[in-house]
Amino acid sequence: MLAINGEKDLQVPWEENLREIEAALQRGGNTRYEIRAFPDLNHLFQHSETGAPSEYQAIEETWSVEVMEVIADWILKTVGR
How far is CA 6 from each of CA 15, 78, 79, rounded to the nearest angstrom? Predict the structure, then answer.
């Protein structure tokens, strides 16, 4: 499992969310997971100034390239190349 959050996400508190996901995975005995938080990214994984939803429409970036690369790398690592 790959769990990701943007640190400027104002809709889902990233620290709390990722901490609880990791705790649940550990309780379940899961060992194949990665937890990542991305600085300066909002709820939509866009680079943002404040993370406020009011910024969404003004940001041209659809998704952070960095996040897409992390997801792609994780998939390749998990299922094999």
Answer: 10, 22, 25
